[in-house]
Amino acid sequence: MDQDVSNRWPLINHDEVVDMRGTSPPFKSFKKSSIYFNWCTSIFDCCLCRWIIGFVLWSKGILMKIPCCRVLFRWCRGLFRGAKRWVWKLFGNEECKRDAQIIQTLHEDKENVLKREQNFYRAYNEEKQEKENALAREAKLLQAYNQEKQEKENALTRLSALAGDRLRLNNPGIADLSDEYRPNKLAEKFSELYDNEWTEFYEDLEKPGSTEKQTIGQLLNLIQEIYTVCQQQAENQRRALINVIADPSNGKSENGSPPDGILIKIIDFQKKTVPWAIEAMKKNIMKKYEDLSDNKSESKRKYIERCVQLCWMMSIQDPPMHLDFGPEKDSVIDKNVYKLFTKTGDALDFMVWPAVFLHHNGPLVQKGVLQPK
């Protein structure tokens, strides 16, 4: 027992042994055989046993040379092999059947588990696809609803705008509060023109030897001329647009007034083309009155430009706003319409600044200024 342990037979652990089919053999039978094998290897480790085995093997080599012993050995070997086959046939087939049944059961269980998993994933994917389809349908319905809602809102907006335009058409008492150049705002700007640009140009226009009445008369005549030109040009432009729309082939209209919707669009077009119209009329006015003051006078340019802008915006209103340049000389002053300039009195001497009315024979929007005697 004191020999090198590296020559000992290895012990068999039945928990680590796996057969050729990849499955463990039956627990009890394998455990029993492994115990027998380990017991036998322990016996073979004994020196006496090794000597006996060596003697038997030496004797076998001598006895195998004797014919009768050789026949007896072969007969015993055949008998042993037959007994081994009989024992294996008697007990081994049952163990193999049990192993096969266990393996088959395991395979069936595995297939059943796989089928259940496949069915579960299939049902999960179907439910997921149904939810995605439902969400897609809801998104389409929501998009269609929002589109229809937006179309209705746009239609209501257009209808409201059209109703408002028709209500304001030929009704200056109703103003569009979003319009920067509505009548009330224009009257305020016209009053600012008198306070600022008129005063500056008046100071530049004064010359030694000229009277106050002459200087103010020149300024009044200038704005009266601008107002008259703007009234005529605005009316001509509106009539030309109406004629072109009514009969594009020859630009002439045989009918009366156009429909309200067309007239509203024409008025809007005139308001949007204000910069071009003002620039053209400003050049004509500056050329006509170039004898007033210096041609390079900044106050003259500002005054004429502002007069043209406000008079044009007043002229394209519907109906056009009206500037009243006062009664005849020596007439009784209506102090509800005009303010006094530098003197007090009841009879008119000369006009200084026109009064603004919402339209001809309409309500007063801004008082004028005059000088009494």
Automatic annotation (TrEMBL):
Keyword terms, alphabetized: Coiled coil
Keyword Coiled coil: yes
Cited InterPro entries: MIEAP_C
Name used for this protein in its record: Uncharacterized protein LOC111125994 isoform X3
Coiled-coil region list: 114-162
Gene: LOC111125994
Organism listed in the record: Crassostrea virginica
Ranges for domain Mitochondria-eating protein C-terminal: 182-370
